[in-house]
Write a structure and sequence with these properties.
By secondary structure, the chain is α/β, with parallel strands linked by helices. The protein has helices at residues 3-6, 17-41, 58-67, 80-92, 129-139, 164-180, 186-196, 218-235, 241-244, 246-259, 279-287, and strands at residues 48-52, 72-77, 98-102, 114-120, 140-151, 200-207, 210-212, 263-265, 269-275. The chain is globular and about 55 Å long.
Length: 288
């Protein structure tokens, strides 16, 4: 069985205009963490980068700025409407060093070799992440770097006092993703999977943002994410629409957090950097 045949599940969050808007909300919260990860990974002028599951283009745009006009980003996604949004955003930003293509993760063999591969919240939606990592390893040049971010919905580190509504939402995300067959703990597994795939010099961190106050974007981000997964959650019998009351969720979450002078924590996120051994390192290993 080829990787193309089994590497992509149905994306749990769907491919709607509302989901594409949710991705923009999410990006506003997470981009600073992602950009710091890309810098630590060493993305720099002149590199060629492959961005997997690029969505509306946030990671692609961040990478393109780091590698400069002499570098090149190839960004792939299966949602053509998301790619249209990404192209428009890149044009508005004056970035001509990004090429957006419609492709699945198992259809990358004709794209050439890369100095770096990036992916944010893509591996957990693949049925065979081990196969995907093996394919990425082949696409990278010797010494190339893989940079991944993945959630772990099975754990939650709330701020104190904690938000009951945020915890309820994260628990529902975990149960819906589990029921869909997605890998809810892939973030925690990435270190092992990347090591088994041959990546070295692994550098992993667990991060999540915490924010509060009346103007925090977290409330809308949580509400829109919950709105997206509510239909499958209801159809699976995990919750009723009345229990969630989605149209008032954003306001109730804001009121709960602000009234306690608290913060609301985002979901736990693993950021991992791994490097493909350079050719000379491979030769040294073989010699031993």
């Amino acid at each position: 069985m080829t990787m193309t045949e089994h590497s992509n599940r149905n994306y749990v969050m769907g491919h709607t205009d509302r989901e594409r808007r949710r991705l923009l909300l999410q990006a506003a919260v997470l981009n600073p963490i992602t950009e710091d990860l890309l810098r630590r990974a060493g993305l720099s002028d002149g590199m060629t980068v492959l961005d997997l599951g690029c969505g509306v283009g946030d990671v692609s745009i961040a990478a393109a700025r780091l590698i400069g006009r002499h570098g090149r980003v190839v960004a792939v996604d299966i949602d053509e409407r998301a790619l249209e949004t990404a192209r428009s955003r890149a044009d508005s930003a004056g970035l001509s060093n990004i090429e957006f293509r419609r492709a699945r993760v198992g259809e990358l063999h004709g794209l050439g070799c890369f100095d770096a591969v990036t992916g944010r919240f893509i591996m957990g939606h693949l049925s065979q992440p081990r196969d995907a990592l093996a394919e990425i390893f082949r696409l990278l040049r010797g010494g190339g770097v893989l940079v991944l971010q993945e959630y772990d919905f099975s754990s939650h580190s709330p701020s104190l006092p904690s938000s009951h509504l945020a915890a309820q939402a994260l628990d529902l995300f975990n149960r819906v993703f589990q029921a869909s067959g997605a890998h809810t703990r892939l973030g925690a597994q990435l270190y092992q999977l990347m090591s088994q795939a041959g990546f070295v010099a692994l550098d992993a961190r667990v991060e999540y943002g915490v924010d509060g106050g009346p103007d925090s974007p977290y409330y809308e981000w949580y509400a829109e994410s919950l709105r997206t997964i509510l239909p499958p959650a209801v159809s699976l019998g995990l919750v009723t629409a009345r229990e969630i009351d989605i149209d008032t969720f954003e306001r109730r979450l804001r009121d709960e957090v602000v009234s306690q002078h608290a913060g609301v924590a985002g979901p736990v996120m693993f950021g991992i950097i791994g490097r493909k051994p350079a050719l000379e390192e491979t030769y040294e290993t073989l010699a031993i």
